[in-house]
Fold RNA helicase.
Amino acid sequence: MAAPVGPVKFWKPGTEGPGASVSEERQSPAESSGVTVIYNPYASLSIEQQRQKLPVFKLRNHILYLVENYQTLVIVGETGCGKSTQIPQYLAEAGWTAEGRVVGVTQPRRVAAVSVAGRVADERGAVLGHEVGYCIRFDDCTDPQATRIKVKHEQRVVILKGFTETPQVLLQN
């Protein structure tokens, strides 16, 4: 281990602190431009194959069984495991969206609500706003007659209040 070169200097309160001459850390142009970069290691696979690669796929039948047999189900999983994109589709495929019922998914951020809804619409081969839609502040991209999977950005308390007034399936991310 090398010894420090030159005399050791101590910082004294009231003087310029260590590292004061270092410039501020700046955001890269990609971060400040608002462009979202999505990493998908399975981009070369078909959408169906991509869906099957997600961790939640192995639990599909188990989740559907639990939803059918229990009044409340809490699902916890890692980011990117398919909670928000796959489980609503599993419920729709199993008939939970028949007779006008809607699967609701809450997202903590507006961008997440729009991107999740877009991904689900892509996977289902649907036009965004028809079968799959999103609802964020000042922008409701849903069709009341056709939307079966709705992704909302809203405070969870407001969402839960709405679902207690009109009981439907709710997924909370």
Remarks:
- DSSP finds six helices and five strands in the chain.
- Residues 15 and 21 are 12 Å apart (CA to CA).
- Strands lie at 103-107, 132-136, 139-141, 149-153, 169-172.
- The mean pLDDT is 79.
